[in-house]
Amino acid sequence: MTSSSRPTLVTIAEHLGVHYSTVSRALSPDPAVRRTVSDATVERVERAASELGYVSNRIGASLRTGRSHALGVLVPRTSEWVVGTVYEGIDATASELGYATFVANTFDDEGTRQARIRRLSQWGVDAILYSDSRLDAEDLDPVGGVPCWPIIRRGREDHSFRVDDAAGGRLVAGHLIDSGYRDAAVICGPKDMSTFRDRATGFVDEYVRLGGRVGADRIIDSDLTIESGRREAGRLFDTDRPSAIFALHDPLALGVYVAAAERGLRIGTDVGVVGYNDVEMSAQLPVPMTSVNWKCRDLGVTIARNAIARLEGRPETAKPPSPVLVPRASTMPDAPAT
User: Fold this and answer.
1) How far apart (Å, rounded) are the C-alpha atoms in residues 261 and 247?
2) Buried/exposed 230-262: b ≥16 CB within 10 Å, e otherwise
3) CATH number for the domain running over 70-163+297-321
């Protein structure tokens, strides 16, 4: 082999004195195929491949097998902490199972999403996982034979690649009632995203059932920025201040903190505040914020395991994580009932 030639499976086979097919099976990304070769042979082949500088050609392999062992993942924005953390779990788990991942932003724009889907299908991914479903939208049909599966959010149809957001809302309702907050408002986020609708519905239904009050005019749609939380909380504070505000996204809850500070209100005493997602800063605020942790990375692990099981025709046994309420000083246990 010259210094400029690229080592191949044949190169490794000749180096070891074994058949080409043995090397191919030993280096297969499919665990079931690798198991047809002894562990000792796999180790020997992998060591030789490393010594010879072999790099597998997945494109060539996909032409032979019809499988790329790659997943496409569409997210609204990789800069968002939640979807970024979910993707981290997907990518790490897919890698452990012999799959690569490719991520692309859609910016919650339908035209951008369709362009990204076409591009990913052209590159031959085995499936596309998309996290930008809208409540009024049908699930996507396969594109060029590539299945498209929703994750995190849902459209008109439910699916198993998400957490129970309504359960998270119910946890908040019980906590606020137990802590003495019986007059609440909800800053919801966009009304066409299932994550926020389900959290709000779960909260309101349970809060009212437990004896709390939350009027229809206090269930407020918004975007997801700190400024939006500040603006909507300010309106509530300046009209008929509730005893607690449940903001369905931690940046919205940070906006509530800002609005309270501007009016000299004490978080946890004058008004209780609960967020959702439990980002790292929630625990670091001057008044640490109660929030719901739904274990974003663990959901990514579940999504990857079940998506790959579905592709390989195996049962989908991984269970999505359950949301957990993390109580902190923003909802003081001794807050007076109102």
Assistant:
1) 16
2) bbbbbebbeeebbbbbbbbbbbbbbbbbebbee
3) 3.40.50.2300
Chain mean position to CA 325: 18
C-alpha dihedral (252, 255, 259, 265), degrees to nearest 10? 80
Q: Quickly tell me which residue has 């004490």 as its tokens.
A: 266
Residue 327, C-beta contacts closer than 8 angstroms, at least 6 positions apart: 175, 179, 290, 333
Instruction: Tell me the pairing of strands 291-293 and 324-326.
Output: antiparallel
Q: What is the pLDDT of residues 75-93, one digit of tens each?
A: 999 888 899 999 999 999 9
- Compute how many other C-beta atoms are within 10 angstroms of the C-beta atom of residue 109: 13
Output the CA torsion 188→192→196→198 (10° steps). 120
Where are the chain's structural domains?
Answer: 9-56, 70-163+297-321, 165-294+325-331
Cβ atoms of 247 and 273 within 8 Å: the answer is: yes
d(CA 201, CA 312): 36
Provide the CATH number for the domain formed by 9-56 in this structure.
Answer: 1.10.260
Identical fold between 70-163+297-321 and 165-294+325-331: yes
What are φ and ψ of residue 273, in 5° steps?
A: -135, 130
Element (DSSP H or E) covering residue 51: helix 39-52
Contact 304, 90 (CB under 8 A): yes
Please name the residues in contact with 1: beta carbons below 8 A apart, sequence gap of 6 or more. Answer: 7, 11, 52
Instruction: Tell whether the torsion through CA atoms of 252, 258, 260 and 266 is positive or negative.
Output: positive
- Tokens for 151, please give them: 């994750």
Which pLDDT value is given to residue 334? Answer: 56
The model's pTM is 0.81
pLDDT, tens digit (0-9, with 9 covering 90-100), for 183-197? 999 999 898 899 999
Phi, psi (degrees; rounded to nearest 5) at 74: -105, 130
Q: CATH homologous superfamily for 165-294+325-331?
A: Response regulator (3.40.50.2300)
